[in-house]
Amino acid sequence: MCLAITGPIAFFISETSAEVTQEDEMNRRWFVKSGLLVSGLAAMPSVALAALTPTPKQTEGPFYPRELPLDHDNDLLKIAGRTGRVMGTPLHLFGRVLNTDGVAIDGAIIQIWQCDAKGIYHHPRDRETGRDPNFQGFGETRSNAEGAFRFRTIKPVPYSWRAPHIHLKVFTPDGKETLTTQFYVAGDPANERDGIYRAIATEAERKAVTLEIVQAPELGGNALATQLTIVIG
Ligand SMILES: [Fe+2]
Predict the structure, then answer these.
(1) 75: Cβ–Cβ under 8 A, 6 or more apart, which residues?
(2) Domain topology for 47-232
(3) 166 CA → ligand 1 middle, Å
(4) What predicted TM-score, i.e. pTM, was given to this entire model?
(5) pLDDT in tens, 140-159
(6) Exposure letters 95-112 (e unless 16+ CB within 10 A, then b)
(7) Which residues surround ligand 1, an ion (CB under 5 A)?
(8) How far does residue 27's CA lie from ligand 1's centre (Å)?
């Protein structure tokens, strides 16, 4: 299942018209509740008209896919051909890609990858035993004309010495890699013990890659939601 966007707040699931209506309405209600239902650039309140600070670059880590999985759409909770339920807490991630002038980047390619709820990457370098076979682990999508994109994934969990995080890459519309970074969970005590997080130069840059996660029952059961703004320098 691929989650698509037709406007800054118009999201739909491209399977049946009933699902389109329901999903659209759920997202509309979530944006109203969270105070984000405004038009155009102002849809992300963190966007300022002054020059924006580029999102800080961070290490790629050892678990970027050697080859992309066959199913690598933006819904990491569903793998084509599988019906099992993903372990972990669903997280709806709503983002935008901007340049430093605050102008939306249309058609940017955004990739995310993260470990499953057991702390295991679906990668040959990580262990196979205990993997969640229903978690997609990696996803890719494109920003729309408003620079908006979305993913459905799980709330990241810690593993080894790492704080919970989601890896992210952005490519220009013509496929040139332009940013590799990681996003963290606001308030997680492991952040301050994580050397990669602590190595981010400034408090403002750390904040730019720290996700405020909120409850979003309108998006289903125990769903969580968050938003992020990516600024390409
Ligand atoms: Fe990682």
Answers:
(1) 1, 2, 3, 136, 139, 151, 152
(2) Protocatechuate 3,4-Dioxygenase, subunit A (2.60.130)
(3) 7
(4) 0.84
(5) 999 999 999 999 999 999 99
(6) bbbbeeebebbeebbbbb
(7) 61
(8) 29
